Amino acid sequence: MSGAVVMPARRRVAWGKRAGLVIGGVIVGAVLLVAILAPWITPHDPFVQNLDNRLSVPFWMEGAKPGHLLGTDGLGRDYLSRLIYGARISMLIGLLTVVTSGLIGTTLGVLGGFFGGKVDDAVLFAITCRLAIPVVLVALAVVGLLGSSLTLVILVLGLLLWDRFAVVARSTTMQVRNLDYVSAAWAAGLSTPAILLKEILPNIASHLAVVATLEMALAILLEAALSFLGLGVPPPLPSWGLMIAEGKDYMFFSPWVIFIPGVALFILVFGINLLGDGLRDLLGAGDTR
Amino acid sequence: MSTATTMVRPQETAATPAIEVRNLRRTFRIKGGLLGKDREVVAVDDVSFSVPTGGVLGVVGESGCGKSTLARVILNLLPPTSGEVLVEGRRLSALDRRARARLIQPIFQDPFSSLNPRRRIKDIVAMPLVAQGNIPARQVNDRVAEMLTRVGLSAEQGERFPAQLSGGQRQRVAIARALVLRPRIVICDEPTSALDVSVQAQILNLLAELRRELNLTYLFISHNLAVVEHVASEVAVMYLGRIVERAEADALFRAPRHPYTRALLASVLTPEPGLGVPDVGLGDTLPDPANIPPGCRFHPRCPVAEPRCAVQVPQAVATTDGAAECLLLEGAAQP
Amino acid sequence: MSAPLLDIQGLRVEFGDTAAVRGASFTVSRGETHCVVGESGCGKSVSALAVMNLLARGARRSADRLVFAGQDLLALPERRMAELRGDRMAMIFQEPMTSLNPAYTVGSQMAEVYTRHRGGSRRAALDRAAGLLAKVGITAPGMRLGQFPHQLSGGLRQRVMIAMALMCDPELLIADEPTTALDVTVQAQILRLLAELQRDLGLAILLITHDLGIVARIAQRVSVMYAGEVVESAPTAALFADPSHPYTRGLLACVPVPGKVKREEALGSIPGVVPRIQPGFEGCAFRDRCAHAAPVCAGPVPRQRGEGAHEFLCRLPPGWTATERAA
């Protein structure tokens, strides 16, 4: 009966939130598509320099050159092409980091939450240790020590950003573990790994998906920050953070060189967060009876 | 502690009981906070009983009396602190999970939390068969279809998810899942408490039919005495972890011996107008499993308690059809 | 007879395209306990919330008549309604934990109710609270006032809820499944308490329940709801002696009664499920599950009047049960 009382209100709220979900989904989907199709849709090679055509202005300014929709950078490389390839780097780093950290965090969290006791103590200790590590400083130190590369950035971020996965996986597992369907699965003779994979994981997946979006946004921003400091993706790879860094010398005369990748970064992170919020409301509502 | 609750009756000695529980005890530790000491909560305290094949033992008691913990220990969902559970003469703790699943299955109270919301009904029902690991997929499908039909669900409903079914239909799914392996014993933990009256009747009828058809043994846990009276052949009354009275159902309802049983029976509100609400005379002190009173554990609430009840621990006394633990019964006041 | 304290005629509540209550009518007089009984989804709780104007947003309420102590509740602005709630009409819910604020002590919550409606000092309000806690059978009320809701057992919390509802001497108490979450022994105690309070204070009680046992034991009058309608309404004894609507009869047959229903014998049951009722639904909502259904049941259903104040909503004539028994 209470369901009947609450339902109409909930439906209305869900519709408002669904707009965010759709917008976020469209943004992230579009960026992903662009990233995948990069070699086929870029008008120019993003690596080819043309010193005769440096800092050509984008289309909305006077003196824009046809063929360079967003102008060129300080080395005369087509800015639109670099932006598109930069989306590749951002999405790649975002996704791979989330996969790595998601695997680590979810495994730890589920094990801790399910088994409790000593296992849980160990997991909690690991989480506490991880939270005591300053991510940016460690990332800077490691990259500074070993030299920058795409793989290293992904590895470092992946190994550092699993804490939220672990916390969420642990607490949701604890809730689900006590539900009768897990007891029923146990009584039905299912093995522990089967219970974890078939009964627990699918029921905490929605919460993890929300964490994944947040972590992805964070990883993308961190990569941009690292690249900006020259410790992320090595040039000439076109990362958005690196583009901002490279553009900072020209920012007073050609502000659009930082403006364009900055806005791209903002839109992508904004979209991912919208998607995450929308997902949380959608799946959260679906979880309740 | 002597265990007179083990009442082996002549006809039972011949055949092995379907389920036998010996001196079962289960305690929990409750963390005492920053400065407080850890407390020990005795949820099940030295419980022994047996149920013959085809019998239904009703277990009644108030919340916190340990009846659900008892169910979970018997199902091996919780290990006992001490004591053992024998199913058809075999120690449950020595069986592997597959063998255990073939013998004993649960039906839980809340049909909303007892079904995995991310699985289809047919997959939920198939789970015990799949867990056996050696049943061909074809056979699994056949048996699931057969079982769904038997509990009154259509094949089309098998394709749905739990959220698309009503409470009664979900409980039918839970029954199908519990019976698909043809177990010998089913532990029903408040199987109808979350259901509407008319649906409760349907589920009780279904459980009764299935029991006769498959010669099942039930342990039927409920707080509803009217329901227990309807389904059980024997009844055990639990209070703060102990079985304080156990008797044949007819005898228990006709002539309850323990004051607690009497109070429970008195508080049943049958739909008979004009009788008013009974005065159960139990007072306000509610049982706290973390703080079990000395002497007879029921004495603080007992309407007929005497001073000695606060000191002396009652021993079980055999009654005509069972046993009860009360000092006021003749022969209970042994030193 | 004087006018009833609460007079509800033709109450309707709709949520989007679902009709939760469809023209329900009942009255509660001073000193009377009126039970509304039905299964989940029948609209009994929604009716209670509608009287209190506590429906969820998005619900549409309308009625032919909704009068409390001479005041037309339909015309009353929400501000005035809020003054009535907790003062002249109070409500207790199934799960007291959801209606008690976990962050405040029992005492401050009870005092707050009183000072909000009646003013006066907090000291006086606390004294009154302590007195009421004692009245509802709570020992050491002074200590309980300083406790938080989570420190109390379920039975105690429900007593606190009742005491809190009584803070301003309400004339009407609406109790929605007040004992469903409680143990049977505690349930009996709480119901006795309600009956005693009613006798002492002349309260009118509207009690919502699914339990026919509770109805039989404490109600003076019963309304059986099904699919948003009151399908049968009668003085308690008359209803149990001669249940006239097929649904009421079915419901009574479902309840195991110790000593009356034989063990192993199948209980009565009602086939099928409650239909989903949309606005504009025609005919008897029970016809798909009814053994006495006829083609006319798809049309308008007459409200039959039996002896006394016994009414039921069915095509069958009053006294059909007697002729059936005779046949």
UniProtKB/TrEMBL annotation, chain A:
It comes from the Bacteria. Residues 87-276 form the ABC transmembrane type-1 domain. PROSITE patterns: ABC_TM1. It is a multi-pass membrane protein. It holds the Pfam family OppC_N. One of its GO terms (cellular component) is plasma membrane. This is ABC transporter permease. It comes from Roseicella aerolata.
From TrEMBL, chain B:
It is found in: Cell inner membrane. GO terms for cellular component: plasma membrane. GO terms for biological process: peptide transport; transmembrane transport. One of its GO terms (molecular function) is ATP hydrolysis activity. Its main location: membrane. It comes from the Bacteria. This is ABC transporter ATP-binding protein. It is a peripheral membrane protein. Keywords: ATP-binding, Nucleotide-binding, Transport. The lineage of its organism: Bacteria, Pseudomonadati, Pseudomonadota, Alphaproteobacteria, Acetobacterales. Pfam families: ABC_tran, oligo_HPY.
Automatic annotation (TrEMBL), chain C:
Gene3D superfamilies: P-loop containing nucleotide triphosphate hydrolases. One of its GO terms (molecular function) is ATP hydrolysis activity. It is found in: Cell inner membrane. Its main location: membrane. Residues 6-252 form the ABC transporter domain. The keyword Protein biosynthesis does not apply. Keywords: ATP-binding, Cell membrane, Membrane, Nucleotide-binding, Transport. It holds the Pfam family ABC_tran. Belongs to the ABC transporter superfamily. This is ABC transporter ATP-binding protein. It comes from Roseicella aerolata.
